[in-house]
Amino acid sequence: MKNSETSKLNIEKAAEFMELPPSKVSELIEKGNLKRNWDEYYDIYRFQGHAPHMEDGTVLIDHHGTFELVRGFPKIKRAMLLEPALLNNFSEISSVAVEEKMNGYNVRVIEFRGKLIAFTRSGHVCPYSTERVQNFLEPDFFREYPDLVVYGEMTGPENPYVQKEAYGIESLDFFVFDIRYKNTGEALPVHHRRELADKYGFNQVRLFGDFSINSASSKIMEIIRELGKKGREGVVIKDPAMVLQPIKYTCSESNCSDLRQAFKFYNEAGRDYLYSRVIREGFQSHEWAESEEDFMERCLRLGESILRPMKKTIEQVESGERISDEFRIRVKDRETIFKYRDYLDRFGLYIALGDIKKIGDEYVAEIRRMNKSTNDKTLAMLEGQLWS
Amino acid sequence: MKNSETSKLNIEKAAEFMELPPSKVSELIEKGNLKRNWDEYYDIYRFQGHAPHMEDGTVLIDHHGTFELVRGFPKIKRAMLLEPALLNNFSEISSVAVEEKMNGYNVRVIEFRGKLIAFTRSGHVCPYSTERVQNFLEPDFFREYPDLVVYGEMTGPENPYVQKEAYGIESLDFFVFDIRYKNTGEALPVHHRRELADKYGFNQVRLFGDFSINSASSKIMEIIRELGKKGREGVVIKDPAMVLQPIKYTCSESNCSDLRQAFKFYNEAGRDYLYSRVIREGFQSHEWAESEEDFMERCLRLGESILRPMKKTIEQVESGERISDEFRIRVKDRETIFKYRDYLDRFGLYIALGDIKKIGDEYVAEIRRMNKSTNDKTLAMLEGQLWS
Hints:
RNA_ligase_Pab1020 (chains A, B)
């Protein structure tokens, strides 16, 4: 209670810093568009739900006298047809840098009161990512460049959100794909960023190269075919100067892998999620001028990605099992496991903690997230209820 | 203007007839839940948007002193798993009647001021269906049974909504599947209804037979397989006494045919429409205990139903064509063509009238409905715009 009084946000000053009228800041707080964090992150606020001129997930840090903004990660738009998208969006420049888009979850890292902390896309401080990131990034970087934010992908099998074996990672790792200035969100140019990250020994997403605008689409198609075979996601195509907005483009296999995961829990699967992936397949199929045989293979891949996991779920529930999402997390501090559980609790995501094993100097926790909705719906259908 | 005054609804009397408080009826009118028709159907009102205790599309007819209700067609729920659904929903009876569910649009027919009129599902008087139904149903029936409403499916290739060749119909025809009392909506028992319809020479949906509850699911699966091969839709399973609610069940081929039609206009395709059809395939695949080969065939059928029409649309737009929905209607009175166009106009459905040819004593009109949204989106992608 005392804490909440002493650390109350100075609205006048915060408003001045953000160049907004104080009444606007008060309104954002009242309407829940500017929310404060809890516990040791009490002085960190996040923007949510379309605050004006501020990306969702942008974070405001109150240093009691001064402020800092960590801008939300700008949504990267998608090319449906690669070649026209390249020509249309990068007409002002002569070449693009192509980097791998890895499949995991993205976090932003800064130093806060002597410790690295990791923000999720929505601007929450994730206890698991925060603990992990201490191992991944050299803190000297943040002391040298206190005005920079490191954006990267957390990926690997010991991942609460997207478990991927495709990268040959044993547990979890962090790959830098962007470095941006605090406050403005301005990005470092691609090659400058890569040199800097390299200097501090950071892992980085793979750079496939810089390609001239005219040759890029055929080069990227080749890359996408190779990535697809390896079960990887796709690429982000960037203006090397990071002035024009990047574009993403993904593999058919990755779309289908998303669908396989989603349709295991078919009653939770989003309609838009299904629709958007189907649409990508349609455009890719057109642009790649596939043979009839390749096209039929794509159709089969799409259909199977939807139906096989769903069929398996029904079989499992019929046989008396219940489906659930299972994953592992690995931590140095045993406490992080419980902090992470409590953190998910706040969002209504209830997990069941299973075995916790000590392996070396770390703890590995087995976690299950029950998918009540799909289990219940499947049971209802098996009992002869009607759909609607 | 004069007409609107003389035919004003007597709210007190209408309320008394419907057993609602007059204030409720006034409220329904104010809120747009009870809407009057236009022109010669000015004395006909329809319920829309969840009026209490009244199915959507229910029609109130004001005879200036007396009233009648034509109840909306009750939504038929769907079996996802046939056998448990049969056992669970018809446990009180020993056998079910299985009739064909035809693919068209359903209308309700009554006599109004000396002429047959056809209501659509939403309770509008459709000028095309109204003209057509004069040829299909013997008016004596309605004079003999003024308290009955005939429910049936309009199907065939000359159909503005669902063009089907599968029934061997040359133009359009009407198949009775229900006869219900005005006001209460109570249905005639299946065999009584069929005898009555037969007596007046009405076309009827096919009755596959009455099956004991225990043998019904295997019998229906056989029927569904056969119907699927012929490109037909499915069945409705009924309590012969029409006391318990009927259940519908459809063929995989029909789901896929729906998707093929929808994904031609992929940018207009509903997310829920896609999702629901995919889900049906998953459950059917499970219940039918398919071989791996049959399962893969189903996956391919599903994927192809989505991707092939979409791919074709993109190709067409790229080649400079624009996609559109094309169909024909056939009428006796040339005026009906224009009345029907104006009728669609009221719903914001704009059509382009093409050639009108005289064939025998009838007029055949070519109609095109442009799908601006899919054309525009496809063009935008071909020009290199990004998805979002």
